[in-house]
Specification:
- The chain has 143 residues and is of the alpha/beta class.
- The protein has one domain (8-77, 87-133): 3-Layer(aba) Sandwich (Rossmann fold).
- It is built from five helices and five strands, in the order βαβαβαβαβα.
- The protein has a five-stranded parallel sheet, covered by helices on one side.
- Helix 1 (16-29) crosses helix 5 (122-136).
- The longest helix has 15 residues, at 122-136.
- It is globular, with a radius of gyration of 14 Å.
- Mean pLDDT is 89; it is low at 1-5.
Length: 143
């Protein structure tokens, strides 16, 4: 949890439209959640380890991860996160356009906390984001 007592989310997503959509969904929830966005796989571990430009940032309360990223895939990032005991307590939710069964199986094998395919409908997307926040940040945020 960040210094202000609000929950924080690290979103690892390269699609600007999906980033904006998630921001809109969080705004509709009217919760003060700090959102950090990383658009490629190479910056994630620097942020989590407070290296370089990310020095001083608190560890996020939740990671929302796309699997289709430039540089490193979401699966590579998930594996790195899960292999570092410093981050074992951070829930990682996969949110991707993929609906392939092999992606779901690999996400489970790599110990993702959940796997969701991105809904194409705005209202379904908002509902999913609300469900994710309720499930993984409910005790970490102040309304």
């Amino acid at each position: 949890m960040n210094k202000n007592g609000f929950g924080s989310i690290l979103l690892i997503e390269d699609n600007r439209a999906d980033i904006d959509l998630l921001k809109q969904s969080l705004n509709l929830l009217k919760l003060d959640i700090n959102l950090f966005v990383i658009t490629n796989g190479f910056q994630v571990m620097d942020l989590l380890r407070n290296n370089g430009i990310y020095k001083g940032l608190e560890k996020p309360d939740l990671i929302i991860l796309d699997i289709n990223l430039p540089g490193k895939s979401g699966f590579e990032i998930l594996e790195e996160i899960r292999n570092d005991n410093s981050f074992a307590d951070i829930p990682v939710v996969i949110l991707t356009s993929s609906q392939h069964e092999e992606d779901i199986i690999l996400s489970n094998k790599l110990k993702a906390d959940a796997f969701f395919s991105k809904p194409s409908d705005f209202f379904e997307f908002n509902s999913l984001i609300k469900s994710i926040v309720d499930s993984w940040l409910k005790n970490k945020i102040k309304p």
